[in-house]
Amino acid sequence: MQITFIGATHEVTGSCYYLEAAGKRFLVDCGMEQGPNYFENEEIPVPASDIDFVLLTHAHIDHSGKLPLLYSRGFRGNIYTTYATADLCNIMLRDSAHIQMFEAEWKNRKARRAGKAEIEPIYDMEDALGTIEKLVGCPYKECIQITDDIHVEFTDAGHLLGSASIEVWMREEGEERKIVFSGDIGNKNQPLIKDPTYLHNADYVVMESTYGNRSHEEVCDYTTALAEVIQKTFDRGGNVVIPSFAVGRTQEMLYFIRKIKAERMVQGHGEFAVVVDSPLAVEATTIFQRHYEECFDEEAMEILGKGINPITFPGLKLSVTSEDSKAINFDEKPKVIISASGMCDAGRIKHHLKHNLWRKECTILFVGYQAIGTPGRALTEGAPQVKIFGEEIQVNAEIKILPGVSGHADDKGLMEWAGAFEKAPRQVFVCHGEEVSCEVLTSRLENELHYQAMAPYSGTVYDLKEGVFVRTAEPVVIKKQEIKTAKVSSVYQRLLAAGHRLLTVIKHNEGGANKDLAKLTGQINSLCDKWDR
Ligand SMILES: [Zn+2]
Ligand SMILES: [Zn+2]
Question: 15 CA distance to ligand 1 centroid (A)?
Fold first, then answer.
């Protein structure tokens, strides 16, 4: 009974844990690494086709984004997650495949012009669709029996619609161990979704530490601040353009604007128009509405109880076609435009920036984190002009930042979550945080809660039955030039994976009818004869 730490070790993104227990091999999360990457992650130690199932904490791409790659390499097991996460993955994984294909095509156009070799996307739409077929939606707080000896339970982690902490019980030779994966732990008092639910018993805990060394600033009255921005901008005849993440942040904005409208907090502009211009955001909004019963908090349910939908209101336009999108900027009436991507590096937001940035009466309102190197970051840092679709655009509009309501618990929230265990777990593994965050949280768990805690590096293996480290991995720092040369042909990778899958299929046929076994052998041999050259 072992756990191997693969990703989000001393880093925030790329969540992935590999477990072997009760004769099964499974993953918890299979996320993509995003943004700066400091440490090399070890590969999952077995071929994808040998993995029996996956447990998924939530839909964010840094937890789910590599599932289609796993699928492309031969994984065909079930992916257990909550109903809402399964629904969100349906749109987010397709979107991710789209981005992979688009980026590969863009790089290939450049490569062709430069006479360089072309690359393959790490996965394509077919892989994403195949993955989506494997998603198994589960309710919160019910025992999900996966095999005779492994059962799990999902608990609302209050981080994103559908997000969960996962409790896993595993039995080997009559002995049971329980490990809890915190998933991303939510912040209290986020709009719409519930506060995180605490868990009280575990032998082992794997917990996140994104804000392990930081506290959130005092939350401002978001609705009032947003109403002021809208009022001021509309009074001078401009639009409020909000670059926003399609899933989560956009629905929060709608929640605030509904309140602003209901309480008439913006005066003199009637039922002003609010346009959501992102097909992904529109689909996500529908999913939020579908899962209110299991996911919404009391405040949102109270609004619903009065027969009011908390994320819709008069004047809301959900724009989908690209004609609709273009028409938005021909209508001169001041309006709010919410569009993706949140960091302005892709998507329809670029069109809206092009049409509104140069107009001094408009406001560009940033409500989320802006990574280094993105146009959003440049704008928030006061760039006098930015390049959009190859065109230099003057920044005359007002640039405003309203730090969003964070989806993550801060240091206080994390300590509270960890402190809810009635008995000290045998061992706490601190992951999903940058170097300083995970180290600071680890020592606080040790000093204040007297827990046995450590922050593993990728490749660390722990025996859950014996309670000992099998291997303590050392950090492998990525050198800049290695990142560029590390690309191996992904077509060959797929072939290799298919080979592993073939072996898995052969093993599954053990004990089958001799006639079938002989037939399969014949087919494999003729395939080998054809290709062995
Ligand atoms: Zn997350
Ligand atoms: Zn995360």
Answer: 10
